[in-house]
Automatic annotation (TrEMBL):
Belongs to the major royal jelly protein family. Keywords: Secreted, Signal. This is Uncharacterized protein. One of its GO terms (cellular component) is extracellular region. It is found in: Secreted. The lineage of its organism: Eukaryota, Metazoa, Ecdysozoa, Arthropoda, Hexapoda. Its main location: secreted.
Amino acid sequence: FKKGVPATLAKIPLRCKTGRPTLSPFPCWSLQEEGNCAAFQSVVDLFLDPQDILWVLDTGIVNSLEEPVRKCPPKVVAINLKTGK
């Protein structure tokens, strides 16, 4: 939503020894590249179905809180959480 945010979809570890968990890009860094329409641009909604498919809604718009720019068309992406694909 803002410049300087490196990932639009991230995961947080459930167990953190320090008490200060670190967000990690999900599913990987290569899917967090601004301007690459095969990657995520601005994830705004998630839905997990009974088959463990994570449905991801990406608007394709970056910097939406300041000066919105459409980098890519909107898309819905399905990620199988059992296989990671």
